[in-house]
């Protein structure tokens, strides 16, 4: 857990929207290009992982994807992440966000 002190968790619903893409594209060039930064994307939908990786590889030096939140501890012991994009709902039909908060609380150090 000590490794997460400098890590930023970004909460998201289960889709990457055009609004997110537009917000990222509107950032200044300096803010967009984070050459030495790494991000972990955690989502149970492999299509979202693929889309996120394609979008964010232009802005992060290293983009790692994970489709099972149970694997987060192993991944964060293997490398440092500057940001984590965490899905809030794991499983079909879920929309409460409780699962995302559960995983966030498991690994976040406040």
Helix and strand topology:
Layout (H helix, E strand, L loop, with lengths): L7 E5 L5 H9 L2 H4 L1 E9 L3 H11 L3 E7 L5 H7 L4 E5 L10 H10 L3
Describe the overall structure.
The chain has 5 helices and 4 strands, in the order βααβαβαβα. With 110 residues, the protein is an alpha/beta fold. It has a 4-stranded parallel sheet. Strand 2 (34-42), helix 3 (46-56) and strand 3 (60-66) form a beta-alpha-beta unit. It is globular, with a radius of gyration of 13 Å. The termini are close together.
The biggest beta sheet reads: 4 strands, parallel
How many distinct beta strands?
4
Protein structure class: alpha/beta
- Into which percent range does the helicity of residues fall? 25-40%
Beta-strand share of residues: 15-25%
Strand arrangement within the widest β-sheet reads 1-4-2-3
Mean of residue pLDDT values: 76
Shape: globular
Distance between the termini: 10 Å
Quickly count the helices.
5
Following the backbone from N to C, one meets helices and strands in this order, namely EHHEHEHEH
Cα-atom Rg, whole angstroms? 13 Å
Uncertain regions spanning at least 5 consecutive residues:
1-9, 11-22
Labels describing this entry:
4-stranded parallel beta sheet, globular, alpha/beta
Task: Describe this structure in a few short sentences.
By secondary structure, the chain is an alpha/beta fold. It has helices spanning 18-26, 29-32, 46-56, 72-78, 98-107, and strands at residues 8-12, 34-42, 60-66, 83-87.
